[in-house]
Amino acid sequence: MDWNLLSDATSRALAAALEGAAARQGAIAHNLANVDTPGFTRTDVEFEEALALALEGARRAPHRAADFIAALSLRPRPDRLAPARADGNNVDIDREMVLLSRNALRYQAVTEALAGRIRALRNVIQEGRR
């Protein structure tokens, strides 16, 4: 039995979402740093769909939930579909700034959800001591 209080599938999924958002933050920062680099191809970390599939697998086989979530790929992948400028660079600074803001909001929401789980566990533990 795993005695880690945050080892349930929901907590692991929230942690994976935080890792995914952090990886996306890095990719966006890399894109912005190379906005003027000729021939640069933007990258992104797309993890939401993979996380949803992992959670579906975890729902069907709860005893393997950790395996499904641990198998998520959080590597940046090139975006070859975005239109490129004449210099071959396909980074659109306005789009990256929107993605950056959206990612920050998602990170904050997931952080608050995980903090809520921790507060709930703390309350249960404290009530058990009385």
General description of the model:
- By secondary structure, the chain is mainly α.
- It has one domain.
- 62% of the residues lie in helices and 3% in strands.
- A two-stranded antiparallel ribbon has the order 1-2.
- Helix 1 (9-33) packs antiparallel against helix 2 (48-60).
- The longest helix has 37 residues, at 93-129.
- The two termini are 26 Å apart.
Distance between the termini: 26 Å
Percentage beta strand:
under 5%
What class do helices, strands and sheet pairing give?
mainly alpha
Share of helical residues: 55-70%
Spatial extent as radius of gyration = 19 Å
| Average pLDDT for all residues | 89
The total strand number stands at 2
Number of domains: 1
Provide a count of the helices: 4
Summarize the structure.
This protein is mainly alpha-helical and 130 residues long. It has helices at 9-33, 48-60, 65-70, 93-129, and strands at 43-44, 77-78. The two termini are 26 Å apart.
